[in-house]
User: Which sequence fits this backbone?
């Protein structure tokens, strides 16, 4: 990868033979774990202005109808967050001269509060081409990281690194976007915006005549799925807007489904609704794999938004998609049959991925995946996608395969969890919307299938063989500090936390991400070894997770010695408020919270008063520190019994952690409203 400095430029064509589509990544880290930024992309013409509102992409407008730009969302890294953008340069309209990639902060945050600001550009296979690091960020609240621009028939990348103290409003104005002055004034004053949006929301409108919304490119139907009938009385609503970020003056209407089904017409609970994808007849793991692959691939081809959402992350272009199952491909004396094949056609070119599926917790076989990698390389395919219940971790490959460096053609190996599939389907039909009611119904049927006990597609659900001996070793204090099984438990814990984030994010309609407080370049295996040593010493597994768009950080601690799971969050005391007013307001905000919630007052030195919410509700003043000391904040904690078995049954550890986080967010964090929250001490 070529490193360039601020102001420098480089030709993408000179760096790669396959630069027709690229993945742009913006990344940063934060020591506090609460730092975040919103990515935005602007397509500008020769005059340096957007042509219409459709040239501005952000949270509420994440993808271009022509497939040229798609915001792929945030992913956690070993040292922070990475926000990725897929750009198909072959699909960019001729009138666009530059693609500006920027980010903005909210709630008074500054880019100088973030560390390791960086932009990278990779080719379709994920191979990094060029990188640019920003070292001079300060008080800016918006930043142009870089831009892709035309020079004749080629595309080039320029490292910009230009900041704006005036935030997204100042950046947007420079590119021909008019800012709603009332919303801007509300933002500066810290007042809430329209429709319950936060004080950091900026209303924007393109200062030109609006053009009709473009129709999305038609996608070919997959052979395995027939068009689904539309349900009666579909609910058509605008795609849900987030509680922050820009809002355009027009909203593209999409279809979502209500979270609660209509009243059933069944006579009793024994009547089961008819399902498009039935599962009770599945008898073996092979049947589950075949059925799950066919169901998923057919829905991907039938529902353009869903298929594109899954494949864009793997470098696939936007185009006509077809999917296939049980395809026979030559391999030596015996043909091989991958579980599925995905093909996408755009501008006469084909992108192809082989799919290998496992269900019911069955592990991927390295030798089988290696064969598919070899077949793909020989046939000029772009990717191999593995799909299983397991969750991938950064720095820990799901399957070890050998790549022949002598081959000119590169094949990318990607992994997808069934939990991620369910998350993306839920995000579309519950929060973001899809093109029509039939597509929403298809995604709902897919979700029902994935959630059925017999489907085998339940995400991560087994802490592994090391769980029981490690837990018993901690209980009787016989576990050695260098026991390699402790590292296995730490890795399983990380997978569990990532899956908890997926489920929580799917319910909220916002990304939830694990927080990792390490510096860029830290060795992941060394970090996990250190966590395993702490587990052996104090018997605790710890993690933090953050809801995207907020600074609320939830700390989760599983104490294997006491058999308890603790979830907690710190709420800072507002500046300039009277202590008694502060504690009364907090108790009032928590009027619907569980009575067994533990509340502790934080002070500069020593320990503050503490008690359960049940005891404090009649006398909020009991939270005031003695001696007149002012509280600096409050720690809110819930404690729940921990399941002991390694699986996801009623008594399982995985389910107990998942339920603890869900209960804490729903019962506590959700009631805090605009109150900023930070991670509680993991003790």
Assistant:
């Amino acid at each position: 990868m070529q490193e360039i400095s601020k102001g420098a430029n480089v030709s993408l064509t000179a760096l790669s033979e396959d630069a027709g589509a690229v993945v742009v990544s913006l990344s940063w880290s934060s020591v506090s774990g609460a730092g975040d930024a919103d990515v935005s992309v602007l397509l500008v013409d020769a005059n340096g202005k957007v042509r219409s509102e459709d040239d501005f992409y952000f949270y509420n407008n994440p993808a271009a109808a022509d497939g040229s730009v798609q915001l792929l969302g945030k992913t956690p890294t070993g040292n922070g967050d990475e926000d990725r953008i897929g750009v198909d340069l072959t699909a960019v309209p001729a009138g666009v001269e530059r693609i500006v990639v920027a980010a903005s902060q909210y709630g008074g945050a500054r880019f100088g509060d973030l560390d390791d600001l960086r932009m990278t550009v990779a080719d379709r296979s994920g191979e990094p081409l060029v990188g640019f690091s920003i070292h001079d960020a300060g008080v800016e609240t918006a930043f142009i990281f870089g831009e892709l621009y035309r020079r004749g028939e080629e595309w080039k990348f320029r490292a910009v690194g230009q900041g704006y103290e005036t935030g997204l409003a100042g950046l947007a104005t420079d590119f021909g976007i008019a800012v709603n002055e009332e919303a801007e004034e509300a933002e500066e004053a810290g007042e809430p915006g329209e429709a319950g949006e936060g004080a950091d929301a900026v209303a924007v409108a393109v200062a030109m005549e609006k053009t009709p919304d473009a129709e999305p490119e038609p996608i070919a139907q997959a052979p395995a799925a027939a068009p689904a009938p539309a349900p009666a009385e579909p609910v058509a609503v605008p795609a849900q807007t987030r509680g922050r970020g820009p809002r355009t003056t027009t909203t593209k209407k999409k279809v979502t489904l209500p979270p609660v089904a209509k009243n059933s017409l069944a006579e009793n609970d024994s009547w089961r609704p008819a399902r498009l994808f039935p599962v009770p007849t599945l008898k073996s793991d092979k049947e589950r794999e075949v059925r799950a692959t066919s169901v998923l691939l057919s829905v991907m081809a039938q529902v353009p938004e869903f298929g594109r959402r899954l494949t864009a992350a793997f470098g696939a272009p936007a185009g006509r998609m077809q999917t296939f199952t049980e395809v026979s491909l030559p391999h030596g004396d015996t043909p091989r049959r991958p579980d599925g094949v995905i093909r996408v056609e755009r501008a006469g070119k084909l992108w192809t991925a082989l799919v290998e599926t496992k269900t019911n917790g069955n592990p991927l076989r390295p030798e089988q995946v290696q064969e598919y990698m070899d077949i793909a390389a020989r046939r000029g395919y772009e990717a191999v996608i593995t799909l299983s219940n397991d969750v991938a971790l950064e720095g820990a490959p799901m399957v070890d395969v050998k790549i022949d460096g002598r081959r000119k053609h590169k094949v990318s190996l990607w992994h997808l969890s069934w939990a991620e599939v369910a998350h993306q389907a839920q995000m579309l039909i519950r929060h973001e919307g899809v093109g029509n009611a039939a597509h929403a119904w298809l995604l709902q049927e897919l979700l029902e299938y994935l959630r059925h006990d017999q489907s085998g597609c339940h995400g991560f659900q087994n802490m592994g063989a090391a769980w029981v001996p490690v837990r018993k070793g901690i209980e009787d204090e016989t576990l050695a500090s260098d026991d390699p099984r402790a590292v296995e438990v730490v890795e399983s814990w990380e997978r569990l936390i990532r899956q908890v984030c997926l489920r929580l994010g799917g319910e909220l309609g916002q990304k939830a991400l694990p927080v990792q407080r390490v510096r860029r370049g830290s060795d992941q295996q060394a970090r996990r070894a250190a966590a395993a040593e702490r587990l052996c010493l104090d018997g605790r597994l710890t993690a933090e997770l953050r809801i995207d768009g907020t600074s609320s950080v939830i700390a989760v601690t599983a104490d294997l010695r006491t058999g308890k799971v603790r979830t907690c969050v710190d709420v800072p005391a507002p500046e300039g408020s009277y202590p008694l007013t502060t504690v009364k307001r907090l108790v009032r905000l928590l009027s619907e919270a569980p009575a067994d919630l533990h509340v502790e007052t934080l002070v500069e030195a020593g320990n503050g008063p503490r008690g359960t919410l049940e005891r404090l509700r009649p006398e909020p003043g009991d939270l005031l520190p003695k001696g007149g000391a002012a509280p600096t904040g409050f720690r809110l904690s819930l404690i729940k019994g921990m399941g002991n078995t390694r699986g996801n049954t009623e008594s399982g550890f995985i389910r107990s952690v998942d339920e603890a986080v869900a209960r804490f967010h729903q019962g506590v964090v959700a009631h805090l409203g605009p109150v900023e929250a930070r991670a509680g001490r993991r003790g």
Observations:
- Confidence is low (pLDDT under 50) at residues 181-251, 675-683.
- The first strand starts at residue 2 and ends at 3.
